């Protein structure tokens, strides 16, 4: 299972079902960019066209929520913004987070296929968003896909063209692997220049210890008390036997739950707001 909260005040709350479709060979697919829209009664998003890419001959049907969340092949998708370094917030390319989730839902059948397709789309057509994380889940596997843009100093804007642009960074990691970097491609995949770019930019060196994407590409996020507290709470609800410290900002990539996580348990996690913790314990909650 995978899920996410969509707590953006601009994001629509309705959803619809997009059916599977056949497309003429050689046809093109419009790419849309999510932009703020303040012309309606409530703040919202508009989706103007910013380019086009080759269409595939068959697209799967999917549940079209604010971000598409599941297609008719049991591929589930979750989303979480982490932001990343300011210099990596891309302002050129064709693919933003909502567009990427849509294309994956339309084109992929498994989580493993989704991470490879997502990486290929970003490489070929350019990432035009801040740091984003997508979770891809099928009946057998779950993967975490993280992506940021290229450094702005590395080149000029690409505009609406569809030529290759390969300097964005991304990594994918399979659950339930417990490390942030692994040499096993069955559990970890990344852009070839992921560590080299971090080293050249002064964000990481071998003297710092093993490379970790989150510290190199999103150091401020790792210091966010709000983000780390939510991370702790989910882990603590699933695996209280670990007695993780709520005030830490460095948690495992994943944990093994003490008991089976049912749909009801997932709902209870989403309903939780840190209640029931002693203010004097090491796992204190600030509400």
Helix and strand arrangement:
Layout: E1 16-18, E2 21-22, E3 28-32, E4 35-37, E5 44-46, E6 49-54, E7 58-59, E8 62-64, E9 70-71, E10 76-83, H1 97-107, H2 111-125, E11 131-137, E12 142-148, E13 169-175, E14 188-190, H3 194-200, H4 213-217, H5 219-222, H6 225-238, H7 263-271
Helix pairs in contact: 1-2
3D architecture notes:
The chain is of the alpha+beta class. The protein has 2 domains: 16-204, no CATH class; 224-274, no CATH class. It is built from 7 helices and 14 strands. It has helices spanning 97-107, 111-125, 194-200, 213-217, 219-222, 225-238, 263-271; strands spanning 16-18, 21-22, 28-32, 35-37, 44-46, 49-54, 58-59, 62-64, 70-71, 76-83, 131-137, 142-148, 169-175, 188-190.
Strand content: 15-25%
Our count of domains comes out at 2
Please write the string of helix (H) and strand (E) elements: EEEEEEEEEEHHEEEEHHHHH
Strand order of the largest sheet: 10-11-12-13-14
Total beta-strand segments: 14
Q: Level of helix content?
A: 10-25%
Shape: globular
Low-confidence stretches: 154-167, 278-287
Instruction: Name the structural class.
Output: alpha+beta
Give the integer mean of the pLDDT values. 85
Query: Termini distance?
Result: 27 Å
Query: How many strands, which pairing sense, and closed or not: the largest β-sheet?
Result: 5 strands, antiparallel
Number of helices: 7
Radius of gyration, whole Å: 20 Å
